[in-house]
Specification:
31 helices; 10 strands; 3 domains; mainly alpha; 6% strand; 54% helix
Length: 630
């Protein structure tokens, strides 16, 4: 059972409080496919903890600004979102505000003396509360949309309130005449690293480098801005009595270029500051979501250990993995009850069998069944029902494709490639289909490397495509008409490249290419020679994929009166994929019929096998009485 994110963050803060001055703050990485509920989990975490610690949910995908200034806007959003603080835990950002003021000035055409004079005049002018309020209000307008607690309900309605929160913290306990930038400005000399820079010249170069970025300089700009933010947070936390928790920053999603750049600087700055043990503890807990690419980048810091419910969180690790939890059958049942309790159990069972609890597709399918209740007995018809994005079965793949896009849009070439790869039993086999993929999708793209799309971690021949993606993709593949990449072309490619010793793979592809009868004789001939358990394992390999082209019961069940071993194998080659893998099998009568057929053929074949016992045990799985509890 996976632990929900708000609970995990609570455990992290408890352990940090117990650690006291020795606390560390590993980056928590929430991994999940597109549509897996990552954004919802972050929002729930923000809502759960925002009254206990300063918290902000930052969404860089809401950013319409130029890419080269994306990180400063992310940092501005963090500052704006955290500035309201909580009662007894005020947060102020004088260093971050100074840096933002400098970034908004153009010193590039000024000589050094003129630039220094201009900076002094600007900083002096911004000691005025009115001028500073206007500046922060402009910052809210440009970057506030990235911070969820600032952007909702509408930026225009909260601009003045957020600006006032930022400025009020800066002027806290000071009269306007006495307010100066003081130690905040001098921080740019030493930067908590014992440096001896000229603070004013540092800010002038910060602005110039940000305006004319060259190799390395933009990274330096981002690093300095991150360091200033952390310095502000450390000093804010130090002013609070007791052991206050770290500020909480939730970043959605970490695969975007702006988020990647921010995290790269954060990791760099944290590593540099870790060498200064006299500094106050790390002041920020960061939770970031990813569909996979971010986790690959963070792997350079070391392996990401998964958080295990009930176990201590390994605070010494630089980052930790948190798999996004799919919905359980009980959770889907509760969702179904909201629109009608009488048939909620049936709708939940049908939906969960199809979606495997994938949050976004579960919501979509339940809504469709709520609109057309009769389609619960015709899920195949529901999936083929046309809509704005084509048949429903195709649009249900859209969340997964969006999750592979840094801009969250549905790339049709990527979608077609995903459909082609759905024929592969595992990632190693998917590579063999590369020549059939549309340009520019090639080997090495996120489609092949995503650790959330292909699970579990490990060798390529053990990584399987997400079961819902594979099921929907196989259905879409069966509907293709272009001979260049249709059903026949794809499975011919797989069959031609199967390893000589991979009998299960060869028979699997042959069955889907030429039919059940083409492989039944070979399987029947192996019955006397192979150990019974080994033969049943081989049967499972051959029947691991349902055939969506067999839409009616007669096609699935095979011979009406099977008498030979080969004919009983034909029955199993049709019935078992339907029972084990066909989500559209929703009518109880059809299910009972197929279970009876499976039980009968397994018992008949037991007499031909080396050992009857494994066949009898397998047949008992399909006994009609056990169906009541399935």
């Amino acid at each position: 059972m996976l632990e929900d994110l708000p609970t995990l963050v609570g455990r992290l803060m408890e352990q940090q409080a117990a650690a006291g001055a020795q606390r560390t703050a590993p980056i928590l990485v929430l991994e999940g496919t597109g549509g897996s509920g990552r954004t919802t989990a972050l929002a729930k975490t923000s809502e759960r903890w925002r009254k206990s610690t300063p918290a902000v949910l930052v969404q860089p995908w809401e950013d319409p600004g130029p890419a080269e200034t994306a990180v400063p806007r992310v940092l501005a959003a963090i500052m704006l979102g955290l500035s309201p603080g909580i009662p007894g835990y005020p947060v102020k950002f004088p260093r971050s505000v100074i840096a933002q003021i400098a970034l908004h000035e153009n010193f590039s055409e000024m000589n050094p003396n003129r630039a220094r004079e201009h900076l002094r005049a600007v900083l002096n002018a911004h000691r005025s509360k009115a001028i500073l309020l206007r500046f922060i209000a402009d910052l809210v307008a440009s970057a506030g949309r990235l911070a969820a607690n600032v952007a909702a309900p509408a930026i225009s309605s909260v601009t003045d309130r957020v600006a006032d929160a930022v400025v009020s913290q800066l002027h806290r306990r000071r009269s306007l005449t006495r307010f100066t930038w003081g130690s905040a400005l001098s921080w740019f000399e030493h930067q908590d690293k014992g440096l001896e820079f000229d603070a004013e010249w540092t800010l002038i170069k910060l602005s110039n480098w940000a305006r004319t970025p060259a190799d390395g300089t933009l990274k330096g700009v981002n690093d300095l801005l991150v360091a200033a933010l952390l310095a502000d947070l450390r000093r804010s936390r130090a002013r609070v009595s007791g052991t206050p928790p770290n500020a909480l920053v939730l970043l959605d999603d970490g695969d975007l270029p702006a988020a990647m750049a921010f995290l790269g600087s954060l990791v760099q700055v944290r590593a540099a500051l870790a060498a200064a043990p006299e500094l106050l503890p790390n002041p920020m807990n960061l939770v970031v979501s990813t569909a996979g690419p971010l986790a690959e980048a963070l792997a350079l810091l070391g392996p990401g250990v998964r958080c295990v419910p009930g176990h201590r969180i390994e605070l010494s690790r630089p980052w930790l993995r948190i798999p996004a939890a799919d919905l359980t059958r009980h959770e889907v049942h509760r969702m179904a009850e909201r629109t009608g309790w009488a048939d909620a159990g049936r709708r939940a069972l049908i939906t969960h069998r199809l979606t495997r609890g994938h949050p976004e597709t579960t919501t979509t399918v339940l809504a469709k069944l709520d609109q057309e209740v009769e389609l619960a007995d015709d899920l195949d018809g529901l999936l083929r029902r046309p809509g704005e994005g084509g048949p429903l079965e195709r649009s249900l793949l859209h969340p997964f494709v969006r999750g592979l896009s840094p801009h969250r849009y549905v790339d049709e070439d990527l979608l077609e490639a995903l459909i082609t790869l759905s024929a592969a039993r595992h990632q190693h086999e998917a590579v063999r289909l590369t020549p059939l993929l549309p340009s520019p999708v090639r080997l090495g793209s996120d489609l092949f490397t995503s650790p959330t799309l292909w699970t579990p971690p490990g060798p390529a021949d053990q990584q399987r495509l997400h079961p819902l993606v594979r099921y929907l993709g196989i259905r879409a593949l069966a509907a293709r008409t272009d001979p260049a990449d249709d059903w026949r072309a794809v499975f011919q490619t797989l069959r031609a490249q199967v390893a000589p010793d991979d009998r299960g793979g060869r028979l699997h592809h042959e069955r889907l290419l030429t039919g059940k009868e083409a492989v039944a004789d070979e399987l029947a001939g192996l019955l006397p020679d192979l150990p019974a358990a080994e033969w049943l394992d081989l049967l499972d390999e051959v029947t691991a994929t349902c055939d969506p082209r067999e839409r009616d019961l007669a096609a699935v069940r095979g011979p009406l009166r099977p008498t030979t071993a080969a004919e009983h194998v034909v029955v199993l080659l049709g019935v078992l994929p339907a029972l084990e893998h066909e989500a559209c099998l929703t009518q109880e009568l059809a299910t009972v019929t197929l279970r009876a057929l499976a039980e009968d053929s397994l018992l008949r074949l037991a007499g031909t096998a080396q050992d009857r016992t494994p066949f009898i045990r397998r047949a008992q799985r399909y006994d009609k009485y056990t169906y009541r509890f399935w």
